[in-house]
Design brief:
This protein has helices spanning about 1-30, 35-50, 60-85, 90-95, 100-115, 115-130, 135-160, 165-180, 195-200, 205-215, 225-250. The protein is an all-alpha fold. The chain has one domain (about 1-250).
Length: about 250
């Protein structure tokens, strides 16, 4: 029994490592230009906010950069999975192997985190100087980013199983990233939005994530009940999207 357990663990590790090598290390080593794109995507909005606010919203913009990086990484899973499925027929091989969809998605999701390392390293350095986080605040921020990543992974995986063309996938990825991480108040406080339109921002889960991230750094005070409600909404949305990914995604052709 212990031998079988070790063998299973090794098999799982090798599958995850293969996903990282195929989906991130290969591109990063052979096409360095992708690293520039990965870093510039979240930082470009950060720079704009810093200049427009004359530096007063630098901390909030850094928090927004974290959220956009994690959300874009998960949504980017859609394009990568679609490319591997439609152009290389990798999913057909995985389906015919003992690997289940959870292992496949987990390995590919980890590869997206590796792919986002350059941007995350820059943001961590900026956060050290511009985000006054306590230990509990840092844990809260990590929890928010984890939920954002899981939410976007569920969205990206589900859409990738329906996509039939890489161009279509990239179009959806850009559209979703724009709708969820640039239009909502991610890089600035929601109080900057006039009240009649503020309620529309709450249609996006990234708004709740931004509130919690800004609260963790002391930029946006939240009452205990308001913070609890934000956490509850994020957890419910993430859980619901994973149930959708499990029940509605087309893992096997029927």
């Amino acid at each position: 029994m212990p031998t079988e357990k070790v063998s299973t663990q090794r098999s799982l590790f090798s599958q995850i490592l293969a996903s990282i090598l195929v989906n991130s290390i290969y591109e990063m080593s052979n096409f360095p230009i992708v690293l520039i794109n990965t870093v510039l995507s979240p930082l470009s909005f950060l720079v704009v906010i810093v200049f427009v606010s004359h530096g007063s919203l630098t901390g909030q913009a850094v928090a927004g950069g974290f959220i956009m990086s994690m959300f874009s990484a998960g949504v980017g899973l859609q394009g990568d999975l679609s490319h591997l499925k439609n152009d290389f027929k990798l999913q057909d091989m995985v389906v015919s192997s003992p690997t289940n969809w959870q292992t496949y998605m987990f390995g590919m999701a980890i590869s997206e985190i590796v792919y986002s390392f350059p941007a995350l390293i820059v943001l961590v350095i900026l956060a050290y100087y511009y985000m006054p986080l306590t230990f509990l605040g840092a844990l809260s921020l990590l929890g928010v980013l984890l939920l954002m990543f899981l939410t976007s992974v569920a969205i990206g995986f589900t859409l990738s199983t329906f996509s039939t063309d890489i161009v279509q996938s990239f179009a959806f990825s850009r559209l979703i990233s724009t709708l969820f991480s640039t239009i909502p108040p991610v890089y600035y406080p929601i109080t900057y939005i006039p009240l009649p339109y503020r309620y529309l921002a709450y249609l996006s889960p990234t708004t709740y994530a931004a509130e919690l991230a800004q609260n963790a750094a002391g930029y946006l005070p939240l009452t205990l009940s308001a913070a609890a409600l934000d956490w509850a909404i994020l957890i419910v949305v993430t859980t619901a999207l994973f149930f959708v990914a499990k029940g509605k995604s087309r893992w096997r052709e029927t």
